[in-house]
C-alpha cells in the first residue's frame, strides 16, 4: 500500500505539473495550443489524478476495498484526445496540428504521472518531449526537405460538368 496523499503533497504535485507541462508548452508557444494550453492540460490531468487518489483514500477509510484510481486516468486520455482533435486542421493537401495534438496527449500523460507522484518519470518524459519537438524540429527539414506535409488526399471531382 502507498502512503497517504497529504494536501501538501497535492500542492507540490500541482505546482510541478504546471512547471513540467510548461516545459513542453515552451516549444509550442506559436501553435494553436501553446504554452498556456500545455500547462493547463498537465495541470488538469494532475488534478484529476490527485482527485482520484484522494477519493481512493476516502473509499479505503470507509472500508471500500474495490476502488480503482486508474479508471479516472483512462477517461482523461479520452478527453484529451477530444481536445487534441480540435487542433488538427485539414485543407487541400495539407494537414496541420498533428504534432500539437500529439504534444497535448503526451502532456496529459505527464500530468497524470505527476499527479500520481511519479514526478521523476514525468520530468524525463517532458525533457524527451521537448527534445522531440525542438531538436527534432531543427533536424527534420534537413532529413525530409522543405516540404513538411506529404499526406496524400483524394481529388474532388465536380459532377456538374459530367453530362
- Unreliable runs, pLDDT <50, ≥5 residues? none
Number of strands: 2
Count the DSSP helices.
Answer: 5
Mean pLDDT: 83
Which structural class do the helices and strands define?
mainly alpha
The largest sheet has its strands arranged as 1-2
The shape is: elongated
Tally of separate domains: 1
How would you characterize the largest beta sheet? 2 strands, antiparallel
| Gap between N and C termini | 74 Å
Give, in order, the helices and strands.
HHHEEHH
Your description of this structure?
The chain is mostly helical. It has one domain (7-151). Helix content is 67%, strand content 4%. The chain is built from five helices and two strands; from the N terminus they run H-H-H-E-E-H-H. The chain has helices spanning 7-27, 35-61, 70-85, 98-116, 119-144; strands spanning 89-91, 94-96. It has a two-stranded antiparallel sheet with strand order 1-2. Helix 1 (7-27) packs antiparallel against helix 2. The longest helix has 27 residues, at 35-61. It starts with 6 loop residues before the first helix and ends in a 19-residue tail after the last helix. 33% of the residues are buried. The mean pLDDT is 83. One of its GO terms (cellular component) is plasma membrane. Pfam families: MgtC. Belongs to the MgtC/SapB family. Keywords: Cell membrane, Membrane, Transmembrane, Transmembrane helix. InterPro entries: MgtC/SapB/SrpB/YhiD_fam (IPR003416), MgtC_SapB_SrpB_YhiD_N (IPR049177).
Amino acid at each position: 500500500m502507498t502512503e497517504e496523499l497529504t494536501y501538501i503533497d497535492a500542492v507540490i504535485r500541482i505546482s510541478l505539473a504546471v512547471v513540467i507541462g510548461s516545459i513542453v508548452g515552451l516549444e509550442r508557444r506559436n501553435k494553436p495550443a501553446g504554452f498556456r494550453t500545455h500547462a493547463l492540460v498537465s495541470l488538469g490531468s494532475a488534478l484529476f489524478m490527485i482527485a482520484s487518489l484522494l477519493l481512493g483514500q476516502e473509499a479505503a477509510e470507509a472500508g471500500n476495498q474495490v476502488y480503482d484510481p486508474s479508471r479516472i486516468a483512462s477517461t482523461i486520455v479520452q478527453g484529451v484526445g477530444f481536445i487534441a482533435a480540435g487542433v488538427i486542421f485539414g485543407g487541400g493537401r495539407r494537414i496541420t496540428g498533428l504534432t500539437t495534438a500529439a504534444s497535448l496527449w503526451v502532456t496529459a500523460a505527464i500530468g497524470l504521472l505527476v499527479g500520481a507522484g511519479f514526478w521523476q518519470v514525468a520530468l524525463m518524459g517532458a525533457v524527451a518531449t521537448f527534445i522531440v519537438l525542438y531538436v527534432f524540429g531543427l533536424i527534420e527539414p534537413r532529413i525530409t526537405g522543405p516540404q513538411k506535409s506529404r499526406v496524400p488526399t483524394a481529388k474532388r471531382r465536380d459532377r456538374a460538368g459530367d453530362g
